[in-house]
Amino acid sequence: MHIQEWLENVPAISVYLLVGVVIGLESLGIPLPGEIVLVSATLLAASQDHINPYILGTCAVAGAVIGDSIGYLIGRKGGQPLLNWLGRKFPKHFSAEHVATAERSFQKWGMWAVFVGRFIALLRIFAGPLAGVLRMPYWKFLIANVLGGIVWAGGTTAVIYSVGKVAEDWLKRFSWLGLVLALLFGLGSMLVMKWRSKKAGPAAGAPADAEPAEPEPVRAGD
């Protein structure tokens, strides 16, 4: 099956669920590539009419808000032992240095750290659980969480979808230009590689007029 036909047959509901679940789990505190999944799904929506960008953006916002809220409740119940456990399970993301940096951000900015953290990969994972551990009032957390989710998920979907539509139209109109540029790039790369190999050849090899060394005579007893 051609890749275009396969993309046209991808069920829209599976794309919506994938985006909502991955972003929700990332917001809950599990290190997952939520932003990459959202951008990829939005580009897919820009090229496939059966995927609705409004539903996609709504699922992304819902996943962000619900995931963050669950992370907040888990952090409030688990406290500091939870951060210690996460540090052992995910030392790359929940190391003592990362936790300390996130705590300083929360202590300095308060609920704004939750809002701004939505746009920063590290804080996006920390925001929910750490806000719960630090006992931030839930109403403050909820306001920042909802606003951050709408601006980040909704804004990302809108911008990427618009860019994807423009790029798709441009590629359809100038597909021949892309083919010419690809051919020129390939031809140029081949010529450069040939020139470099030709230049490096004499330097890497032995001198042409060098005579081979005579083997030493083998003595009896050796």
Structure, described:
The chain has one domain (1-171). By secondary structure, the chain is mainly α. The protein is globular. The chain is built from 9 helices and no strands. Helix 6 runs parallel beside helix 8 (138-173). The chain has helices at 3-8, 12-28, 34-47, 53-89, 96-109, 111-117, 121-133, 138-173, 175-204. This is Integral membrane protein. Its main location: membrane.
Question: Any chance you could write out the topology, listing elements then pairs?
Answer:
Elements: H1 3-8, H2 12-28, H3 34-47, H4 53-89, H5 96-109, H6 111-117, H7 121-133, H8 138-173, H9 175-204
Region (Disordered): 201-222
Organism: Streptomyces malaysiensis
Protein name: Integral membrane protein
- Tell me the number of structural domains: 1
Work out the helix count.
9
Write the H/E string, N to C: HHHHHHHHH
Structural class of the secondary structure composition? Answer: mainly alpha
Our measurement of the CA-to-CA distance between the termini, rounded to an integer number of angstroms, reads 69 Å
| Low-confidence region ranges | 203-210
* Total beta strands: 0
Helical fraction:
over 70%
- Shape label: globular
Beta-strand residue fraction = under 5%
Mean pLDDT figure: 75
Largest sheet: none
Q: Roughly how many Å is the radius of gyration?
A: 28 Å
Organism: Streptomyces malaysiensis
Transmembrane segments: 12-33, 54-75, 109-134, 141-162, 174-193
Biased composition (Low complexity): 201-210
Membrane topology: Multi-pass membrane protein
